[in-house]
Amino acid sequence: MATVGRPGAPDAYHCGIDAAMDVIGGKWKVLILWALDESPRRFGELRRMLPGVTEKVLTSQLRELETHGIVSREVYDEIPPRVEYALTPRGVALGAALRPLGLWGREHVLGKAPRSATSS
What we know:
Helix content is 48%, strand content 12%. By secondary structure, it is mainly alpha-helical. It has a three-stranded antiparallel β-sheet. A hairpin with a 5-residue loop joins strand 2 (71-76) and strand 3 (82-87). It is globular. The chain starts with 15 loop residues before the first helix and ends in a 12-residue tail after the last helix.
């Protein structure tokens, strides 16, 4: 796989982890993926599920995830307008890759016994 330059930086990624962290880096992106893992969500639902995130930051993080092909945004032709966010197949694959990290955090940081392989 060829290395890809980072947006706004001339240097290339050093490894796959470096590239992945560029996609999911930040306080809210992984939590957005967690919230969308079960089902598509409207913007207001996401805000309620992620206490502390501002509307501006949530909008920005969703746009970045959409740019990377992780999240899709569907606008329904209704009044009032309805917009839903969902994981793309690429986002589902990323969620599967992050599950072991969630299990590690649950066991080693939170000190909780590991649950089934599908929990995080």
